[in-house]
Amino acid sequence: MKKKSLSWIKETVETVVIALVLAFLIRSFIVETFWIPSGSMEPTLMVGDRIMAYKIFYGINKVKRGDIIIFKFPLDPKKDFVKRVIGLPGDTIEIRKKEVYVNKKRLIEPYAVHSDNWDTGFPRDEYGPVKVPPDSLFVLGDNRDSSEDSRYWGYVPKENIIGKAFLIYWPPWRIRILKTPLIKMVESEASLIFL
C-alpha cells in the first residue's frame, strides 16, 4: 500500500511539473493571452475582451499592414499595448482630415471609426508626412479619436513586438478569429495632380 501511495505521489508530481514546464514554454514562445483594458481598438476589440496572440516566428519580417499586434509600449516597456499596424519600415505616413495616407495613397479602412466630426489638427487628425524608420512600425488604434498611438508617442521598434492577435476567446458571445483585412489603397487627389 505504501509503494502504491508513493508511486501515485511521484506520478502526480511529475505530471504537475511537466504541465508547468509546458505551460511556461507555450506562454513564453508560442501563444499568450491578453486582456483589453481600454476602448482604443473599439469596435474591433471591446473593453474586457480577452484575446490570444501567437508569438512563435512572428517578428518584423512577418508583420503585414492591417495586423493587430501586441507590443511593449515604447515609453514604458512594462506595459503591453495592442494596436493595428498601418506603416511598415520605409513607408511614408500622412494623415489629412482624419484620412490616412501611406506612400501618398489613401487607405480604405472599414475597421476605423471616428467618434466626432471636428478636426482637432496635429497630431490626431493632421499628421506628417513622416517616414517610418527601418526596423520599426507605425500603429494606430481603430477608435481613431480616442487612441493614443504612434501619432502621439512614435514608432514601435522591432524588439518590442510580442505577437499577433488572432482570437477573441472571452466573453463567449464575442468569440471569433481576428483576420488581417485586405487593405486597399487608392491614389489620392494630391498624388494624381503630381503624376
UniProtKB/TrEMBL annotation:
Q: What class of enzyme is it?
A: hydrolase
Q: Catalytic center at which residues?
A: S40, K83
List all membrane-crossing ranges: 12-36
Where can this protein be found? Membrane
A single MF term (Gene Ontology): serine-type endopeptidase activity
Pfam families, per this entry?
A: Peptidase_S26
Recorded topology in the membrane: Single-pass type II membrane protein
Question: Catalyses which reaction?
Answer: Cleavage of hydrophobic, N-terminal signal or leader sequences from secreted and periplasmic proteins
Give the GO biological process terms.
Answer: signal peptide processing
The keyword Kinase is annotated on this UniProt entry? no
**Keywords tagged on the record:** Hydrolase, Membrane, Protease, Transmembrane, Transmembrane helix
What EC number(s) does the entry state?
3.4.21.89
CDD domains to which the protein is assigned, alphabetical: S26_SPase_I
Q: Which domain of life is it from?
A: Bacteria
- An example Gene Ontology CC term for this record: membrane
Q: Which residues does the UniProt record annotate as the domain Peptidase S26?
A: 10-170
Family of the protein in this entry:
Belongs to the peptidase S26 family.
Matching entries from NCBIfam families are given as: sigpep_I_bact (TIGR02227)
Q: Know the name of this protein?
A: Signal peptidase I
Q: Which organism is it from?
A: Aerophobetes bacterium
Its gene is lepB
